[in-house]
């Protein structure tokens, strides 16, 4: 793992909204096939980091480099096309569409045909759609979504929706996956299922993952490294064992004499 | 395989537009029946249906931008007008009272009408990238008033209010489609033309809807930020939605007035936009078949309401008196929209799904 070029480099990023500083001086990198967890108390700026990475927010300072490309100059859809996929803290699926259509949308930037070919359908568009369907079925298989294929996602249980969202991100064939609280609000069984899928993504597909999560047990068990944020500032970065004993981390969570 | 209509053994079968033998059979029967109608129906009824088919093309267009892509547009009447006047001006004889270029071939003026309207749509679309929901609705509403004023004042093009001008003249390879001839009466020929075009436009819309483009539209409608983050360029697809929608509107405009042969600038008021919205909401949002059903429903309602003055003495046929039949119609559209939104938001298509579900599960209620 060490010695290879990092997939993602974040250097000294600062993001503020009219006097409120959301993140300040955040620096980290993500190495190939690594699972990096980002933790911190509520409001520490974890989701803001994700929003900077996926192009939703534009930071005032800093650099973000993904596979050698500067991300800060790009709009969200171009960042997605580079292979940076994410899920959201609150499920952000396309509610009226079926599971299949949601996953097919993940492949949007892999299609090359345009509106004219779409209208004619036969030929290029049909071939591309059939090929995409085969790839999407692999993900349906991988995430065990077979029985939900044709259901509009708004009718699905919450745990399954979270899984569909992971599927949509995987359909993008990402080179880096950002998971924003993948097990928030899940019961034990759903959490274990999701943990299994996350590990499979890293180990079988070899996709590096950045994961924001509040479930400390999960973070300590799964993560290769952990980044701790507090009030937008990085407090610690290291292996789960290192971070657990760090006095600065304990202070961030429990308070105490500064 | 016989008797197993849902057994699909390839993704191609599974993703087909008509994916069961029953759907294929009924669709074929319905189209065949529609094409056979000129033999049975009187010319007057064919005229109403021809108009309904032209409106259906426009309704499909509105459903693309509002139903599929979720961008509420009250400006549809404006794009219909752009198409109607482009077609009329291109096909009119040059040197007349109003602008004319003498290009009567339908394969010239129909695409031109669509493209002119699409260009207008693409110009308006950037507003949709800045505004959402109600704000966009209000801005597109302004477009209708703007258009109404321009069309009333630009007499060289439109003939002016109360006077109007001849509508587009349809000729196909020299054969005049708007006159009685060896192929049948004017109404019969126009009916077949409209039906053929409607089928073409409807299939094209279905194909678009099931492609990456249609999915991107739906993604923008359901969750626009998530759509951008998974790789859908919002601006490009909003512009495309307005462009395609306006293309449909323009073609509908070009065709709509060939039946009566006459366009008057007053036709493109807010009422026309509301009619299109009623068709989409009553028929079924984000469905092509719903757009057609809605257009037929609204168009066939009109001959019924027009008989009201004869039956109910209170309702007058005179526009200067109150209550008159046009006011009753406007109120009726509003009432129908409200009733459908409250009781069956999926529209006529939703009613059909209920009926189908009932017969599928009979005698059980679930």
Automatic annotation (TrEMBL), chain A:
Keywords: ATP-binding, Nucleotide-binding, Transport
Boundaries of every ABC transporter domain copy: 8-256
A GO cellular-component term linked to this record: plasma membrane
Keyword ATP-binding: yes
Signal sequence annotation: none
GO molecular function: ATP binding; ATP hydrolysis activity
SMART domains to which the protein is assigned, alphabetical: AAA (SM00382)
PANTHER family (UniProt xref): ABC TRANSPORTER ATP-BINDING PROTEIN, CONSERVED COMPONENT OF ABC TRANSPORTER FOR NATURAL AMINO ACIDS-RELATED
Listed name of the protein: ABC transporter ATP-binding protein
Automatic annotation (TrEMBL), chain B:
Protein origin, superkingdom: Bacteria
Family annotation (InterPro entries): ABC_transp_permease, LivM-like
One Pfam family matching this protein: BPD_transp_2
Gene Ontology molecular function: branched-chain amino acid transmembrane transporter activity
TM regions (residue ranges): 52-70, 77-94, 106-127, 134-151, 189-209, 239-263, 275-301, 331-353
Protein name: Branched-chain amino acid ABC transporter permease
Gene Ontology cellular-component annotations: plasma membrane
Native source organism of the sequence: Nonomuraea montanisoli
Topology term for the membrane: Multi-pass membrane protein
Keywords from the UniProt entry: Cell membrane, Membrane, Transmembrane, Transmembrane helix
Cellular compartments annotated: Cell membrane
Statement: the UniProt record of this protein carries the keyword Protease: no
PANTHER family: ABC TRANSPORTER PERMEASE PROTEIN, HIGH-AFFINITY BRANCHED-CHAIN AMINO ACID TRANSPORT SYSTEM PERMEASE
